[in-house]
Amino acid sequence: MGITKSDLFSKKQNEIAAMAKAIGHPARIAILQYLAKTNTCICGDLVEELGLAQATISQHLKELKTAGLIQGSIEGASVCYCIHPGNWKKFREQFAGFFSDVNIQGGCC
Amino acid sequence: MGITKSDLFSKKQNEIAAMAKAIGHPARIAILQYLAKTNTCICGDLVEELGLAQATISQHLKELKTAGLIQGSIEGASVCYCIHPGNWKKFREQFAGFFSDVNIQGGCC
DNA sequence: GTTTTATATCGTAATATTGCGATAAATAAT
DNA sequence: ATTATTTATCGCAATATTACGATATAAAAC
What we know:
The structure is a homodimer.
Chain A: H1 11-22, H2 26-38, E1 41-42, H3 43-50, H4 54-67, E2 70-75, E3 78-83, H5 85-101
Antiparallel strand pairs in A: 1-3, 2-3
Chain A binds a DNA duplex through helix 4.
Protein name (chains A, B): Transcriptional regulator
Keywords (chains A, B): DNA-binding, Transcription, Transcription regulation
Pfam families (chains A, B): HTH_5
């Protein structure tokens, strides 16, 4: 149906999946890498940088903001977007945790 | 349109996004955690474990297999699925790399 | 005050994902 | 041989995502 049965899974499982989904698009990866590089950014740069329409970039920025990965503050007529340091760390730890919780012993097959 | 403009992004950006997408669903997180715990697994267990229909589980397993995160070998009438150790490591490293490539200095706003 | 600049939001189209019943295919059990 | 058991695949419906033009909004520049 296209609707995820979130209630079947634990809070943590839904959380990890949501985090993964947030970075599950190359445009959002590119945005994050660009924000990381410049450390101060306005959306206009991204439109040139990525080659997507302004509306599309804005939409991706919104998703990253909702996920908590970036934050934006109004700077005159522009908006200054940057990475949210605290949540970035949370993401890193969440993924690191997920991938190391699993101790793989050779596999079964 | 629902179609991602992959050609606008680097190979690596597309790769990271695809990896994230693969684990961007709680059912797939749950499957991976379960596989990691049991280390030997058949799909039947997952149907009971997760509460999703067999067809749905099979579909998620296929996606995980396509992403390279799991592997399956035919074991009589069943299929033994398990984590693909090498690729698991690759995923871990890819995410760790992505999150630490970014050195956050306080943020800009 | 009008015009430009920067960003967000709305509406819409195209495509993707999620989920499941039904059915197929292949082995195991009887 | 026939009947379970196990998994994959097909077909479909519901919903989500991606993308963009058009438009709104708000500050800056003139």
